[in-house]
Amino acid sequence: MPPNLDPDAALMLRVKRGDTAAFTELVEKYKQPVMNLAYRTLRDATEAEDLAQNVFVQVFKSAGRYQSTAKFSTWLFTIARNLCLNEIRRRSRHPAESLDAPHPEQEDQPLQQFEDKKTFSPPDSLLQGELAQNIDRALADLPENQRSAILLCRQEDLSYEEIAEILGCSVSATKSLIHRGRETLKERLKAYLRSGEWKPRD
Amino acid sequence: MNESDYNELREIAWRRTLTAAEDAAVRAWLAAHPESRPDWEIEGRLTEALGRLPDAPVPNNFTARVLREIERETVAAGRPRTSRPWFLRSLVPRLALATVISGAGLFLYHEHTVAKRAELLHGVQVVAGVSSLPGPDILQDFDTIRQISSTPGPDPELLALMK
Fold first, then answer.
1. CATH assignment at residue A45
2. Within this chain, do residues A73 and A136 fall inside the same structural domain, yes or no?
3. Most buried pick, A29, A39, B143, B150, via CB within 10 A?
4. Is residue A58 part of a domain?
5. A66-70, A101-105, B64-68: which range is least confident on average?
6. Distance between CA A63 and CA A75 in Å, rounded?
């Protein structure tokens, strides 16, 4: 084993040999970021859960093909994004109303109740909840590649080169996607971003 | 620091918190270029807002479910039925459907042919019966006889005078 091997790649080498404990460690480490990407791409908690589960099943099944030269997180998010794209394509071929998707008359209602791990005073948490919903909506309206680029950018362990590899484009194209996506978000959220305070709608 | 360096630091700030040295460099740039400050602040607030997005809910038994699914698929893959290559797996039901459709088509064609033959046989039987009828010579004076039958009948008064 090379001395400077990525720790996740080392775990994957153990998974290749059928080590379930190493695989469990990888699932525990990456289930949240994979779920975040899946949920914000599909906007359906149940489908996101199934997709995230499928991502890890694919990782296990493809362990034999994994090259330790590739960074594990890059490989993992490439699988996750490909499955998300497949699901988007499937939805476009067989459009169906999602049970979790908002109905037009319920647009002002929360999409999904999240457990907020950050601590806010009650009024602040209400404002944060509404802000989070607005950011979620603004993100959902972005083109898929811009949204994925911005979401992957939140993963601090991913460099621009790695995000570019996941998205299948150059580093400059990746930065351009992030820039354009952020410009759109700034426009949509300017009321909050200019003042630094979220003002709820009347 | 020039504008290119500033933009590079802006791109780094999209991904992670700047180090103390990077932050100091940005502050120095903003002090020299106050027109960039509002944009920098908005960028910072957007990055912060994106960072504060709540995590998607993950069920407690997520890992256990993944392991169960892998076990289920491994067991299923061990069965000889599913060890067939994917193209055979997708080919078998398609072939079965094609066979059923072709069989139904052949049956309908066969039924159609039998019905046609019966109809033809009936026609031949009708034509065969015609041979027992009188020959065409009998119709030699047909036109004359037909014209006679269409002329007006005898005049009774004329007949009486002739008598």
1. 1.10.1740.10
2. no
3. A39
4. yes
5. A101-105
6. 11
Residue B105: pLDDT above 90? yes
Helix axis angle, B37-51 relative to B20-32, nearest 10°?
A: 150
Both A56 and A125 in a single domain? no
Chain A positions in Cβ-Cβ contact with residue B51 (cut-off 8 Å): 154
Digit-coded pLDDT (tens) for A124-159: 666 667 788 888 899 999 999 999 999 999 877 789
Q: How many domains does chain A divide into?
A: 2
A175–B62 C-beta distance less than 8 A = no
Residues A24 and A89 in one domain: yes
Asked, for residue A45, whether it belongs to a domain, the answer is yes
Note whether residue A16 is domain-resident.
yes
Can you say how many angstroms the Cα of residue B98 is from the centroid of all Cα atoms in its chain? 16
Angstrom CA distances, A188 to A32, A103, A193, B4, stand at 27, 21, 9, 27
Q: What is the DSSP letter of B34?
A: G
Alpha carbons A134 and B141: distance in angstroms, whole number: 105
Q: How do the domains of chain B map onto residue ranges?
A: 3-51, 65-129
This model of the complex carries an ipTM of: 0.76
Q: Any idea of the CA torsion for B97, B101, B106, B107, to the nearest 10 degrees?
A: 100
Round to whole Å and give the CA distance between B123 and B119.
6
Mark which residues 123-182 of A lie under 8 Å from B by CB: 128, 131-132, 135-136, 150, 153-154, 156, 158-160, 175, 178, 182
Q: Is residue A60 one of the residues assigned to a domain?
A: yes
* Contact (CB, 8 A) for A18 and A64: no
